[in-house]
Amino acid sequence: MGDLKQAGFNTKAVHAGELKDPRFGNVITPIFENSTFLGPNESPEAYVDNTNGKPFLYTRWGNPTIQSFEEKYAALEGYSRGISFSSGMSAISASILALARPGSRVLTVNGLYGQTYMFLSKTIQKMGISASFIDLDQMNSIDGLEKDISVVYVETVLNPTLGVSDLDHISRICRENDIPLVVDSTFSTPFNIRPVNFGADITLHSATKYIGGHSDIIMGVAGVSDKFYDAVVNMRKNFGFIPDPIQTFLASRGLKTLGLRMKRHNENGMKIARFLEGEKKVKQVHYPGLESSPYHAIANRLMSGYGGMVSFDINGGLDSARRFMRQLKIPDVAPSLGGVESLITLPVETSHASMSREERLKSGITDGLVRFSAGIEDPEDLIEDFQQAFSSV
Ligand SMILES: Cc1ncc(COP(=O)(O)O)c(C=O)c1O
User: Fold this and answer.
1) Least CB-packed of 127, 140, 184, 189 within 10 Å?
2) 292 vs 24, 131, 273, CA distance in Å?
3) Distance between CA atoms of 16 and 70, rounded to whole angstroms?
């Protein structure tokens, strides 16, 4: 495979981590659908499980197909090791539980993905850990951290209001206070930003989204600094959060085209956002690529692309939004995102339905806010479809 350290994004995406065995001459990593392996395996050529430095023994600990995906992902994200999970939520919960001390606080922001909000505001309380939520703008200008904070948790781009975290500033404050920073980079992917370059100790994703890229898996993945690798991987072992090898095989296939897909998602996101900005039935568009976004300057400074997620408020609120979505012919109305097909949803009914209306409004999620995940379709077709749907509102 050679040394890929200096290679470009797409070269790494295709070649990094591939598990080739000259005895078979296989070109891509095979699926090792094995629960267990010979133990002890005394072969001097035994392939080693990164989680413990010994030959593979049991798939809840590690597996060659899973590890191959983790190596590919880590090469793209810029960490020496990656850890995959059965879902984005298991990546989030394992990371927080590995790093947060009982009796301490997680400092985070309003407007997180709804389930993450539930985990931080309710579930971890039972484990003696609390969470404080501040506005993203406060986080972006924070100048110190109190002693009882053991983790800072942010999303690169907030779901669904698309505020952008100033990782450069936040990670500097974390470093000065020796507090780990965990970043959910699901909306951005390593193609648009690599939080490790700003000092993030853990960068994680719902790999269900752009990394898988085809709306056919539920998975998570995290790039973890050496300091925290054992703690996070042990959480995975204890909770049994490892994904199935077939899922990681599909995620690996997804990663190979991540660069190509993200280029198109970024272009389509921008084109749709510009179209919406000029549409008189739209009250407000949220997209960090627009000059009108309060987060444009931060996104410009930190990111190489603005992503495929766009959200907007239609005049007339929830009823108009529902009517508009019913008229669309190309995007499916569905809650996920990041696939090759465009999807559209009302966060109030899906991703943020578990929050109270008051909690949602505090996070800027109005009843009629529509979230659009731009797929890789031809942008003219998407815009034409939006035009005809708006004409019926
Ligand atoms: C930003 C973000 N983080 C995490 C998750 C959770 O991921 P999963 O559904 O794979 O558990 C989601 C799911 O929508 C998300 O949008």
Assistant:
1) 127
2) 55, 32, 11
3) 10
Chain centroid to Cα 263, Å, comes to 17
All structural domains of the chain:
9-256 (3.40.640.10), 261-390 (3.90.1150.10)
Reading the block at residue 390, the tokens are 């708006």
pTM here is 0.97
Count of helix runs (H) and strand runs (E) in the chain: 14, 14
Residue 2, pLDDT > 90, answer no
pLDDT of residue 365: 87
pLDDT digits (tens, 9 = 90+) for 103-121: 999 999 998 998 999 999 9
Cα dihedral sign, 345-367-265-190: negative
Q: What separation in Å is there between the alpha carbon of 197 and the centre of ligand 1?
A: 23
pLDDT higher than 70, residue 41: yes
pLDDT interval class at 385 (50, 70, 90): very high
CA-to-CA distance for 153 and 299, rounded, in angstroms? 18
Q: What angle do CA 216, 336, 157 make, to 5 degrees?
A: 120
User: Of 159, 248, 350, which is best to mutate to test ligand 1, by the most ligand atoms within 8 angstroms of its C-beta?
Assistant: 159
CA atoms of 128 and 130, how far apart (whole Å) = 7
Q: How far apart are CA 87 and CA 236, in angstroms?
A: 11
Ligand 1 centroid to 113 CA: how many Å?
7
Asked if residue 91 has its Cβ within 6 Å of ligand 1, the reply is no
Residues in the chain: 393
Distance between CA atoms of residues 94 and 99, nearest Å: 9
Check pLDDT > 70 for residue 301. yes
Q: Going along the chain, which residue ranges are E strands?
A: 48-49, 54-55, 81-85, 105-109, 130-134, 149-155, 181-184, 202-206, 220-224, 282-286, 309-314, 332-333, 343-345, 369-373
Of 315, 279, 276, 281, the closest CA to residue 293 belongs to: 276
The reported pLDDT for the residue numbered 355 is 80
Asked if residues 134 and 107 have their Cβ atoms less than 8 Å apart, the reply is: yes
Whether 79 is catalytic? no
Strands 149-155 and 105-109, bridge-based pairing:
parallel
